[in-house]
Amino acid sequence: MWSNLIVNYILSRMLRTKFRGDSQKCLAVEPRGKGEIRPLPDYFHDQTEMITRRCFCSGAPRPWLFLGLGNPGDKYKGTRHNVGFEMIDKFAETQGIEMNTLHCKAIFGQGFVGDSAVLLAKPQTYMNLSGESTGPLAAYYKLPLNRVIVFHDDMDLPCGVLRLQNKGGHGSHNGLKSVIYHFRGNREFAQLRIGIGRPPGQMDPKAFLLQKFNASARERIDTALQEGVDALKLLLSKGFTESARRFNAEQKYKHIRLQTMPT
Predict the structure, then answer these.
(1) In angstroms, rounded to a whole number, what is the distance separating the alpha carbons of residues 37 and 29?
(2) pTM above threshold 0.85
(3) Are 49 and 57 in contact (CB under 8 A)?
(4) H or E, element range at 121
(5) Residue 108 counted as domain residue
(6) Per the domain annotation, does 94 fall within a domain?
């Protein structure tokens, strides 16, 4: 674990210089303070090439692209619709990967978990336009969609229950609709569905999504985020099929316990 933290820290330091790339390419920039950004360097692309070379030389598969859906800004922080962002943040924090650049309209980080290269992104386009970031990111790294996992909120699952599936539809989720559209209608990407439960009574679903969790629901979500990190680490070491089978079996029992509890 410490070796990964050190490697990812060194990689993140490499990002702090000047970018001179073609302005027509997918632009990468670095935050420089609140509301301020500056161009990133050739080192950013050198880092990407380093990851590519390491995967190629070791015979490892292509990197995984983990995409968390949500809305940018403090106004939406901690709301139900932003749990995809929270999942990315939790994974990055626990694995020592700094999310310190803007790339293809997303807050972005990259590093290694063991021998597996991972790319982390939180689109800053607002939820309904998430595909404007996710489509270019997958294209930029030339990734097949079976190396992409999208993290998102799901009202069809009880609060705190997760589901890992290798493909699926949008389920009326506007962020997923945009992602699928920008993947040219292709739905062959994986999803980590994060249950937030249904709105109570006659509450407007839109208002429910933009509301923050109460204390008990917040506790369940925090537990779920750590479970999600553990599942993703298992996926990186054991592969998707085995990790999904084990993880979903555990979450099935959790579903039974929580489905009648209030959110």
Answers:
(1) 6
(2) no
(3) no
(4) strand 116-123
(5) yes
(6) yes
Domain that residue 114 falls in: 2-258
- CA dist 190 and 148 (Å) reads 6
Tokens of 91: 């994974």
Distance separating alpha carbons of residues 171 and 43, to the nearest angstrom: 40
Q: Which residues contact 96 (CB under 8 A, 6 or more apart)?
A: 4, 5, 8, 9, 111
Does 251 map to a domain?
Answer: yes
Checking phi first, is residue 35 left (phi over 0); if not, alpha (psi -120 to 50) or beta?
Answer: left
Tokens of 126: 């607002």
pLDDT single digits (tens) 146-167: 999 999 999 999 999 999 999 9
Q: What angle do CA 175, 255, 71 make, to 5 degrees?
A: 20
- What is the CATH number for 174? 3.40.50.1470
Cα 226 to Cα 88: distance, rounded to the nearest angstrom: 11
Query: In 10 A of CB 25, how many CB atoms?
Result: 12
Residue 263 in domain: no
Q: What type of residue is 18?
A: K
Q: Name the residues annotated as catalytic.
A: 81
Q: How many domains does the chain have?
A: 1
Confidence check: pLDDT of 230 > 50: yes
For residues 56 and 46, the answer to whether their CB atoms sit within 8 Å is no
